[in-house]
TrEMBL record:
Coiled coil: none annotated. PANTHER family: FERREDOXIN-TYPE PROTEIN NAPH. The chain crosses the membrane at residues 39-57, 91-112, 165-183, 199-219, 349-368. This is Cytochrome c oxidase accessory protein CcoG. The keyword Iron applies. InterPro entries: 4Fe4S_Fe-S-bd, 4Fe4S_Fe_S_CS, Cyt_c_oxidase_cbb3_FixG, Electron_Trans/Redox, FixG_C, Helical_ferredxn, Ig-like_fold. NCBIfam families: ccoG_rdxA_fixG. Residues 264-293 form the 4Fe-4S ferredoxin-type domain. Keywords: 4Fe-4S, Electron transport, Iron, Iron-sulfur, Membrane, Metal-binding, Transmembrane, Transmembrane helix, Transport. Signal peptide: none annotated.
Amino acid sequence: MATLDISFKPERAHLRKPKRGVIAEKVVPQSVTGRYRRIKWLVLTACLAIYYILPFLRWGRGEGQPGQAVLFDAERGRLYFFFIEIWPQEVYYLTGLLVLATLVLIWINAVAGRIWCGYLCPQTVWTDLFLLVERWIEGDRRERLKKQGAPLTARRIGEIGVKHAIWILIAMGTGGAFVLYFADAPTLMLEMATGRASVIAYSWVGILTCTTYTLAGFAREQVCTWMCPWPRLQGAIWDPEALTVNYRDYRGEPRGSAKKAAELKARGEPAGDCVDCTQCVVVCPIGIDIREGPNFACINCGLCVDACDSVMSKLGRPRGLIDYEAWTNIERGRLKEPPRRRVIRPKTIGLGLSVVALAALMGVSLGMRSDAKLIVIHDRNPVSVTLSNGQTRNGYTIRLYNKGGEERFFRIGLAGLPDAALEVVGDDDLVEVAPDATRELRVLVSAEAHGRLSIAFTATDVATGKSMVAEDMFIANEGGR
């Protein structure tokens, strides 16, 4: 059995030959081409397009309602997502969404390890974008390493200045796009361009500009390794059956150059396919050597797979020396046993069904919820009052929520307490509630009763005839006059 290495020690990016236990000063990854790099570019493009375009999508909700498809409306206290509208009282939907996201992340980990980190995590997406700019201006890894120790020239200063200027522009665009989710995007964008936006908007743009510039430009692998809590959980939830990036050591060892391997094979001695070119190390954005075994810092981006496959193809050797493979199959390979792929197994099935069940539950709940709501709160002090005629009176606070875009009238009623008198303080039993608003009422119930009785308040929509019910208690003879 394998143990997951959590004593992360990345290799120096500039060393030709990796040595165990050397701490990295700075990881300078080399560019690479291949299947997984192309997938990462596609994912990066899709993520950035969604992030920057989503605030500008429109969605009709009727007169007086915001027309932005996705909006966190702080002024109204609403969250809009296309046809879905979440009120502050429905924060449990956001809780459910967080639980669902956690389940999806755990399910992905059971299938393919930290593949979320390697392809979809915002830190990875923006780091790849910053690296693209860096390579475009300063060159690939070899050129950048040479320039790190070279004296500053006018050309070099210009390159550094242009690179950081573009980084700052990207970071500002990131912060600017984020605040567009909290107000009407075209309006806020115009206000920010003309200096008429609020101090809060400019402050958040400044904060997110600084964090994006720092994390994607300088922190990079430190975020994925030390700042993010997710890799720290890998030691607890690492699954040897998951398709993670692994080195087939039973095929690659002992390492040696192509010429040396040919000589060993000619003499009938064992020789591995790994030529110790360290391409898997220099392309790694984290700077680890995957040949050392499973490492919690590996983000499963697959770039080392592309690099190794490229070398194997040039040497005429089979691809897949480094590949997405279950660790159990690595151990089977050492024993010369055939591999067994078990992506579909009780763990992944159970997690998948949990994700589907929770998503379905939330979907059904959203589909069945009403656009109006009734809440009743019983008075606490005093809980009841005895009147001069011997009756007992209880006081309640009723809240009516009208989540629709039109004015509505509700008739307040009472059930479960015969001969009770219902009084809506300052109003009659027909209550008007403005569109997209809450109305709070003071209600008194008087009756000749004893003990604790279960009652139900009703609010009937006059236009549709639909009723809402909220249950409470009527408490008799427990108060003073």
